[in-house]
Structure prediction request, 189 residues.
Amino acid sequence: MVAPSREKKSLRLCGNLWYNTEVMNKTTGTFDRTVSRSVCHGSQVVVRAPRIIRTRYTKDFGPGFYCMVMRDQAARWAVRFTGQDWLSHFTYTPDPTLNQLGFARMTEEWLDFIVACRHGEGHAYDIVEGPMANDTIYNYVQDFIDGKITRAAFWELARFKHPTHQICFCTERALATLRFDAAEEVYDE
Prediction:
């Protein structure tokens, strides 16, 4: 494992840019694909060179390298198993030639896309961005997939939950939009 720099500057790299109207217009639900922004990846190791690892487990947006724009969210994700792990910080510079899909909030289309990805269906997007089915939301999604609850029941349960946000870099071309900046050790508090 590479020991990261302990410079204070790494602590400012992943501000809550999701709420910056220059990045996402909450009214229209569209993303500004020209604004560079900081993103974080939480894991047990420092990741300097991201890669896509295909596993037997299906994820919200399919196989890819997942990042978050909110530092606190990424830190909670990183320490969920061991209580002490790493945030790798990157600058994401959008490439307008990539095929991108963005969900500004949980919608019917978002739910259908997650269900398809969790069933192992592929897609043609380089980058997918939007709400994350966290542990609680994931359980509701799984109950919906399993037929234990209806679509209406899913939305009734999910409407009081505040989903987190994720960006999935699904292709090698998408990974090329990331530049490693720093790493930060994080602890469960």
In short: The chain is about 20% helix and 25% strand. Residues 13-48+58-187 form one domain.
